[in-house]
Design goal:
five-stranded antiparallel beta sheet, about 450 residues, about 20% strand, about 35% helix, 3 domains, single chain, alpha/beta, binds magnesium ion, Alpha-D-Glucose-1,6-Bisphosphate, Chain A, domain 3
């Protein structure tokens, strides 16, 4: 059995650099394990636009067919589109081949449960155990799976979004939004043109062709959106939108060419949804306090979870939330499905702008204003970062802290959060406050205290 190395393995799948860790053999084994775990049935397979997409896809197909699963091939597509297809009753699971916002040399398998959510930690552990033990349930020659082509996954996704009770397609069309959209040559190019045209938008595209040779860092952070900001101003557009390569994160740029920051994507969508359908909200521990202020306005509660989409989705289902998400542009609208989805995010934002009837910069200015500062501490390999955070937690036991995920200090209008990364030898330190100075100083103070712990 080949050793698994140079890979980042988590409950939701496996990722690595193609040719240096992530090989067809790794993809084949995870697909065999996945298919063996869930048993014969139809498994949806989508891929984003990465150059290695076909290479990994054929290994995944082969692995699934070898253990008796039929492959539902939905082609090059987005993560939320794959999740929506997986949720159809005739399908038994789903795998999306995407390394999300990682650089272009990466690829990954994201494994979905039959309900379209990411795998639970328990299911993920079962599948990893099968891979490590090379334990698969191979089918006989006459019961191997076949490939079924489904050409309509994107149409189905779009149709479901348009049918939502809160979305008035005619009103959005009437507004005739002028938009500049930048999908970074990712899978957004397979769905945005049809979707935005259907909503009556006039769209100027940057980096539309889904060829996977990303021209910039593909994470939709303000620093990566300079071309988009300039294009919005140049074309006199109402709005700029950027999505990450698998289209589960959405960032907005105002008509003035100012990036609004991913936290405000979720804040706007939340303000819109709660204004129509007030109900409790589920977000992760690092999401903006703006969500609390907005929830307070509508008399509802915010439930916070550990960082990670599966934790937020599970909590959202448990509390029957009508709105959920992660502050990194990950809008989850549970009445559609329990996954981050930039397509439904765009629909909610456009509907919100229709109702507000003012420029997006003004809509943003009306929301609670916070500044978030994100920093990290890189540790030597082998240091137990989680244990260090635990020691820090013990020292502050009596203070107003939240230990859902790492250690988070809560203040009146600010917070600072320290947590060990699950995937890298680093500790993340994030603070949010009404001013940048306060957020910076909270990060600096906590970093200094962490450094005093020493790396014993
Ligand atoms: Mg993504």
């Amino acid at each position: 059995m080949a050793e698994l190395k140079n890979l980042m393995i988590s409950v939701s799948g496996v990722r690595g650099i193609v040719g240096d860790g992530l090989t067809p053999d790794v993809a084949l084994r995870f697909a065999q394990a996945y298919g063996s775990h869930f048993g014969p049935g139809r498994i949806v397979v989508g891929r984003d636009s990465r150059v290695s997409g076909d290479l990994i896809k054929f290994a995944v197909w082969s692995g699934l067919m070898a253990v008796g699963c039929d492959v539902v091939d939905i082609g090059m597509t987005t993560t939320p589109t794959t999740a929506m297809a997986t949720e159809k009753p005739e399908n038994k699971g789903g795998i999306i081949i995407t390394a999300s916002h990682n650089p272009r040399e990466w690829n990954a398998l994201k494994l979905l449960a039959p309900d379209g959510l990411f795998l639970s930690p328990e299911e993920g552990a079962h599948i990893l155990e099968r891979v490590q033990q090379d334990r698969y349930s191979f089918a006989a020659w006459d019961t191997i799976g076949k490939v079924i082509r489904d050409e309509n996954a994107a149409d189905y996704h779009i149709a479901c979004v348009k049918k939502l009770a809160l979305i008035d397609v005619a009103a959005i069309r009437k507004r005739h939004f002028k938009i500049v959209a930048d999908p970074c040559n990712g899978a957004g190019g397979t769905i945005l043109p049809e979707f935005l045209q259907d909503l009556g938008c006039e769209v100027i595209y940057l980096n539309l062709e889904p060829h996977g040779r990303f021209p910039r860092s593909p994470e939709p952070l303000p620093a990566n959106l300079k071309d988009l900001c300039a294009a919005v101003v140049k074309h006199g557009a109402d709005l700029g939108i950027a999505v990450d390569p698998d289209v589960d994160r959405l960032a907005l740029v105002s008509e003035e060419g100012v990036p609004l920051g991913e936290e405000y994507t979720l804040a706007m969508a939340t303000d819109f949804v709660l204004s129509h359908t007030p109900g409790d909200v589920a977000v992760n521990a690092s999401t903006s306090l703006a969500i609390n202020d907005i929830a307070h306005k509508y008399g509802v509660r915010v439930h916070r979870t550990a960082v990670g989409e599966i934790h937020v989705a599970t909590k959202a289902r448990q509390i029957k939330a009508l709105m959920a998400g992660e502050g990194n542009g990950g809008v989850i609208y549970p009445p559609l499905h329990l996954g981050r989805d930039a397509i439904v995010g765009i629909a909610l934002i456009l509907q919100y702008l229709v109702e507000k009837s003012k420029p997006v910069s003004r809509v943003h200015a009306d929301l609670p204003q916070y500044v978030m500062v994100k920093d990290k501490i890189t540790l030597p390999f082998g240091v137990d970062a989680k244990a260090m955070v635990a020691r820090l937690t013990e020292a502050h036991r009596s203070e107003n802290i939240d230990v859902t995920d790492g250690l988070k200090f809560l203040f009146e209008k600010s917070w600072v959060h320290i947590r060990a990364s699950n995937t890298e030898p680093i500790v993340r330190v994030i603070a949010e406050a009404p001013s940048e100075e306060e957020a910076e100083s909270r990060v600096a103070a906590l970093k200094a205290e962490f450094a005093r712990l020493g790396t014993k």
